[in-house]
Amino acid sequence: MSPEIIDLLNIAFLTFLIVIAIAVSYVRDLLYAAILLGAYSVTMALIWLLMSAPDLAITEAAAGIGMTTLMIAVISRTGREEK
Amino acid sequence: MTDFVLKRMVALLLPFVQMFGLYVIFHGHLSPGGSFSGGIVTGLGLIAFSLVFGIERSEEKITERMTTLIESFGALWYGAMGLVGILRGTSFLMNKGSGISLGVPGKLYSGGLILLITLGVGLKVASTMVTLFTSLMEEED
After folding, report:
1. B13 touches chain A (CB under 8 A)
2. Is B139's pLDDT higher than 80?
3. CB under 8 Å to B108, separation ≥6 — which residues?
4. Is A8 in CB contact (< 8 Å) with chain B?
5. What is the spatial distance between Cα A50 and Cα A39, in angstroms, rounded to a whole number?
6. DSSP states along A7-76
7. Contacts of A55 in chain B (CB under 8 A)
8. How many domains does chain B have?
9. Does the pLDDT value for residue A3 go beyond 70?
10. C-alpha to C-alpha distance for B16 and B125, rounded to whole angstroms
11. Which of B40, B133, B141 shows the shortest C-beta gap to A63?
């Protein structure tokens, strides 16, 4: 890929990352927050891949999805509404 | 959860997910990934099984006592692999210096002890994920 396309993709992904990070703190439903964190980690994995760090990309994707699954497991026990 | 489509999809995908996790563990010294990410993928396969088919069903396949044993075995395995160097008369975790053949570069067997060490760490990470999940699900409120 040419450098301009990589720059454009980087800007797009980083903007998306900031939007998700702000949205997580505003969402009241905990299930939606956990799913948004999953989207955050997938975007972060794509950014690692653009930065030529596939090792970190695999770890970020696996650990992010794993933590999201564990959070959803906890939410299914405690209830979805934030107190 | 008793959805038919979900059950069939998990049954279809589970072998490939487990195989990919083991692939990432075993090729940790050649390609991206390693024992941590491969172990998480392997553990997530088991978690997906117990999420869809129910905890009782996954208790029949792999009991909590077994995951605890595998977890301890992973750490002990790492230590045992470290002791190989001491038994050969060199320092702890010594790989090539203790006379172990390193194999052909680029092939699967190309790191001496590293392959066995990553196997132990991968088993520990996978069983830790499963233990975390089951203890979170079975916790009393």
Report:
1. no
2. no
3. B26, B27, B30, B115
4. no
5. 17
6. HHHHHHHHHHHHHHHHHHHH--BHHHHHHHHHHHHHHHHHHHHHTT-HHHHHHHHHHHHHHHHHHHHHHH
7. 32-34, 37
8. 1
9. yes
10. 19
11. B40
Distance from C-alpha of B82 to C-alpha of B91, rounded to nearest angstrom: 9
| Domain that residue B33 falls in | 4-137
Tokens of B119: 């196997």
| Residue A50, burial from CB neighbour count under 10 angstroms (0-12, 13-18, 19+) | middle
pLDDT in tens, B56-76: 888 888 888 999 999 999 999
Name the closest residue on chain B to residue A70, using Cα atoms.
B133
Separation CA B58–CA B134 (nearest Å) = 10
- CA A44 to CA B89: how far, in whole Å? 46
